[in-house]
């Protein structure tokens, strides 16, 4: 059954077939093809889909960065992608990987990977925007070198919460506290976006370390895009039908093991939490920081 998780939701109809014909060859066929799942949207050739849709690379040089986006938009999803970040001296570069809706009061769920000098740690910067308002940053160091291997970065976005995961380990949870008056992303469909760009005015040590263009082009690699999602199309969600789909993620909670893992990351690797930044919010911390939940 484990291979079920390899099957993108969009291929659900096919799943029923594979379910009956449980062969691994089908799994490969359905493991996702980046050519079908995403499109390179900018960068004038600096973004590339390679190896028959199994690998995507984004690059950045002095002239431009590059980016891609998912073809589908989702209203709730569990999205995984493996990423290998820019190696070596990546100071000044930012690899962004995020979900975002359109319009001026958009919702957005962000991972941003802030590069660094060789041997110095990347920062994983996260944020959540609801109705156009963010200011909810949390930042982390990693417990591994994100440039030597691919690691899985995931979003779980369901009606109860947004959870950021790295290699299956939750690092951040944003709960639905609508009942307490905190806006929650729930009615604007989002696409997945990713880009590699120059942000040396702020990214590394707050902008002190600039991009070393003699190292360009900088390249980040992506593979294994997996989306279990409610695909939103013409105002209709694919989850509104009663097909017996594998929708466990839609009601997935953090069990006690995962709550412990989340605490472990937050205790040992969190370097900034807006909820602890009293100086920044002299009028009082944002509501979601002060609401006590069980
Ligand atoms: C880069 O390395 C410095 C020195 O270790 C560290 O203070 C900083 O948090 C690291 N990351 C970024 C993105 O600046
Ligand atoms: C799905 O099934 C439930 C329970 O059987 C039913 O109440 C609901 O109306 C169904 N929804 C749709 C969209 O068919």
Helix content: 10-25%
The major pleated sheet works out as: 8 strands, antiparallel
Which compounds are bound in this model? 2-acetamido-2-deoxy-beta-D-glucopyranose
Alpha-carbon Rg, integer: 19 Å
Keywords summarizing the entry:
294 residues, mainly beta, Jelly Rolls, eight-stranded antiparallel sheet, 36% strand, globular, disordered N terminus, binds 2-acetamido-2-deoxy-beta-D-glucopyranose
Explain what the structure shows.
An eight-stranded antiparallel beta sheet has the order 1-4-13-6-7-8-9-16. Strands 2, 3, 5, 10, 11, 12, 14 and 15 form an eight-stranded antiparallel beta sheet that branches. The protein has 294 residues and is mainly beta. It has one domain: Sandwich (Jelly Rolls). It has helices at 12-20, 24-30, 34-37, 256-268, 287-290; strands at residues 38-42, 47-50, 55-60, 66-70, 73-84, 93-100, 108-114, 123-129, 138-140, 151-157, 161-166, 169-175, 191-198, 218-233, 236-237, 270-273.
SSE layout:
Elements: H1 12-20, H2 24-30, H3 34-37, E1 38-42, E2 47-50, E3 55-60, E4 66-70, E5 73-84, E6 93-100, E7 108-114, E8 123-129, E9 138-140, E10 151-157, E11 161-166, E12 169-175, E13 191-198, E14 218-233, E15 236-237, H4 256-268, E16 270-273, H5 287-290
Antiparallel strand pairs: 1-4, 2-3, 3-14, 4-13, 5-10, 5-14, 6-7, 6-13, 7-8, 8-9, 9-16, 10-11, 11-12, 14-15
The structure holds 2-acetamido-2-deoxy-beta-D-glucopyranose (NAG) (2 copies).
Residues 114, 116, 120-121, 123, 203-205 line the site of one 2-acetamido-2-deoxy-beta-D-glucopyranose.
């Amino acid at each position: 059954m484990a291979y079920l998780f390899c099957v993108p939701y969009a291929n659900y109809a096919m799943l029923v077939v594979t379910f009956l014909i449980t062969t691994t060859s089908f799994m490969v066929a359905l493991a996702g093809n980046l050519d079908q799942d995403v499109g390179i949207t900018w960068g004038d050739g600096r973004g590339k889909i390679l190896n028959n849709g199994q690998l995507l690379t984004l690059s950045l040089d002095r002239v431009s960065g590059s980016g891609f986006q998912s073809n589908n938009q989702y209203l709730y999803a569990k999205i995984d992608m493996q990423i290998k970040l820019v190696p070596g001296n990546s100071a000044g570069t930012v690899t962004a990987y995020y979900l975002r809706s359109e319009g001026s009061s958009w919702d957005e769920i962000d991972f941003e990977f802030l590069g660094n000098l060789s041997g110095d740690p990347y920062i994983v910067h996260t944020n959540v925007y609801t109705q156009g308002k963010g200011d909810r940053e949390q930042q982390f160091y990693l417990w591994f070198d994100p440039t030597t291997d691919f690691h899985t970065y995931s979003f779980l976005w369901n009606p109860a919460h947004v959870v950021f995961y790295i290699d299956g380990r939750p690092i951040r949870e944003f709960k639905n506290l609508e009942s307490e008056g905190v806006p929650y992303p729930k009615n604007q469909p989002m696409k997945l976006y990713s880009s590699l760009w120059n942000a040396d005015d702020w990214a590394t040590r707050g902008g002190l370390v600039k991009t070393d263009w003699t190292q360009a082009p900088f390249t980040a690699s992506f593979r294994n895009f997996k989306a279990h999602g409610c695909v939103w199309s013409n105002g209709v969600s694919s989850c509104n039908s009663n097909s017996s789909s594998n929708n466990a993620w839609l009601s997935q909670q953090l069990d006690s093991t995962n709550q412990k893992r989340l605490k472990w990351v937050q205790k040992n690797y969190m370097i900034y939490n807006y909820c602890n930044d009293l100086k920044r919010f002299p009028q009082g911390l944002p509501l979601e920081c002060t609401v006590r939940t069980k």
